[in-house]
């Protein structure tokens, strides 16, 4: 019996980008009938316990998804054993994750690290820009990027289940 795949999305605050990535992957997996464990976290500690940014809640709501009950948490070394995949929203968070990774990385733990836009052909190596200091259009861009990555992750993960 194959294990349920598990994916953790990581940004800086866990209030803008990674909650949207979490919502998008839950949504795409459900549509595809893929059973999956999904969570999100931040490398920073400022927003622990907080709900997502209201602009992220509004953007998710525009796509019929309620993320208002999500709560921010900080990534921990244990996450590297708990998840198959840890997907960073940008290069700076990916670099921080490599620092947090338990000794023995990459062989000593389970999680495979990647950059979110590496899952979108044509946008490999690029950051999902932080929309925190900008206007609502930044959140629309974030949603577009995380949904496309989520669709591709679902097909990647479905193939590896076969
Ligand atoms: P996120 O956005 O990393 O997408 O959740 C941010 C949220 C808060 C801050 C920075 C980025 N901040 O500096 O408080």
Can you walk through the features of this model?
With 162 residues, this protein is an alpha/beta fold. It has a single domain, classed as Rossmann fold, CATH 3.40.50. The chain has 5 helices and 4 strands. A 4-stranded parallel beta sheet has the order 2-1-3-4, sandwiched between helices. It is globular, with a radius of gyration of 15 Å. The N and C termini lie close together (11 Å). The mean pLDDT is 94. The structure holds 4-nitrophenyl phosphate.
Uncertain segments: none
Q: Helix segment count?
A: 5
Taken in chain order, the helices and strands follow as EHEHHEHEH
CATH architectural designation = 3-Layer(aba) Sandwich
- Structural class by helix and strand composition: alpha/beta
Number of domains: 1
Question: What attributes characterize this protein structure?
Answer:
alpha/beta, 40% helix, binds 4-nitrophenyl phosphate, 162 residues
Structural topology:
Elements: E1 6-11, H1 17-32, E2 37-42, H2 54-62, H3 79-82, E3 85-88, H4 91-100, E4 112-115, H5 136-161
Parallel strand pairs: 1-2, 1-3, 3-4
Helix pairs in contact: 1-2, 1-5, 2-5
Bound molecules: 4-nitrophenyl phosphate.
